[in-house]
Amino acid sequence: MVKQKGNIMDLEAEVIYNGLCCYCGTCGAFCKEYITYEHEIPVTKKKCYEIYGACYDFCPRTSFAPFVVERAVFGATRTDNLLGYYKGDILTARATDEGIRGKAQDGGVVSALLVSLLEHDEIDAAVVSKTPDNWEPEPFVATKREDILAAAGSKYTQCPSVSGVGDAFEQGYKRVALVGLPCHIQGMRKVQLSTRFDVGADRVKILIGLLCSETFDMEMLKNKLKELGTSIEEVEKFNIKRGSFIVYTKAGKEIKTPIKKMRDCVRDACNYCYDFAAEFADVSVGSIGSELGWSTVIMRSDAGEDLVKRAEEEGVIEVKKLTEKQIEEVRNLASYKKRGNLKNIYDKTDLVRILNMLVEPEMLEQFLGVKQ
């Protein structure tokens, strides 16, 4: 049966020491007195005596009920099992501002949307990840255009982004946007929908999710770069396109390697994630499916749809419908992630209990003789 209550010791036993921690920052975002992060895992240096802890309640890896979240956030459940619930057409878009596009990873859509929200005073802060020279991303509370552009671009390594929401709240911001990977979005949704703990999560007004196959362990990535004849200090930008991992160096060199050769760099916890398309965000954005210099955009909530449509009407972004062939590319990668990680998930899962029946999760469909 799904355990509904736990404390910090349960979090450590079930998630951290079980190799499931995705380093999203949700557990420590609103409990900084007890939880810090070292070597990309939560660390508790002070004894906590809570019987039921917010850290356990908020963590997306203790439990996550996708259909419950969809009904609560979107008012309906998915009809697309691979991409989740969405509204209208799946789009391809890019920023019209060349200054934004010049700084951005692909089409600059995320940066353009955030700048528009700030300039229209619809938010007073945006939580993003910012990378110093060592390429180890940190949560950053952006409050102006220059902040947004300084944080632009994909990192491909993990960042405890939700802890930046805690920072924004401490700094007094009341209308916050969060940009995050699927795990960050799941964590923030759990915070927003918690019935046990109220940390004022209604101050987070918009969640922009980034499409994600996996993130890389920093030390393993550094070693891989050495194999490729460069170093983390020389990197200007990373990208993934058409099955290749691409490294752009500050000296203007472009290095390509098949993405399958990067599998040994993937963080362990990513092997248990089934969400490629940031399925629980207000709007999801990524490069897969779009041509170079454009971004794929999936509108999910009313707020996300309104944001994208207003940005188009105001000329902040230019938009086209994604073709069926391009959408299939997105779906194929989502399917690849779900299928690829399903065995890993089964291996970590205890027997499923339905009333008095106990059965291995991978055998449930066979036992019942029905398609789940």
Q: How far apart are the termini?
A: 18 Å
Oligomeric state of the chains? single chain
Following the backbone from N to C, one meets helices and strands in this order, namely HHEEHHEHHEEHHEHEHEEEEEHEHEEH
Strand portion, in percent?
Answer: 15-25%
Rg on CA atoms, Å: 20 Å
Number of helices: 13
What is the share of helical residues? 25-40%
Widest β-sheet, arrangement of strands:
5-4-6-7-11-12-3-13
Count the domains.
2
Q: Assign the structural class, choosing from mainly alpha, mainly beta, alpha/beta, alpha+beta, or little secondary structure.
A: alpha+beta
What does this 3D model show about the protein?
The chain has 2 domains: 65-215 and 266-359; 223-259, Nuclear Transport Factor 2, Chain: A, CATH 3.10.450.750. The strands form 4 sheets. It has an 8-stranded mixed sheet with strand order 5-4-6-7-11-12-3-13, with helices on both faces. Strands 8-9-10 form a 3-stranded antiparallel sheet, with no helix packed on it. Strands 1-2 form a two-stranded antiparallel ribbon. The protein has 372 residues and is of the alpha+beta class. The protein has 13 helices and 15 strands. A hairpin with a 7-residue loop joins strand 4 (125-130) and strand 5 (138-142). The longest helix has 25 residues, at 324-348. It has helices spanning 8-16, 26-29, 54-58, 66-74, 98-103, 109-119, 145-150, 162-170, 182-193, 218-227, 302-313, 324-348, 364-368; strands spanning 35-38, 41-44, 91-95, 125-130, 138-142, 176-180, 204-210, 235-241, 244-249, 254-258, 283-286, 295-299, 317-321, 352-354, 357-359.
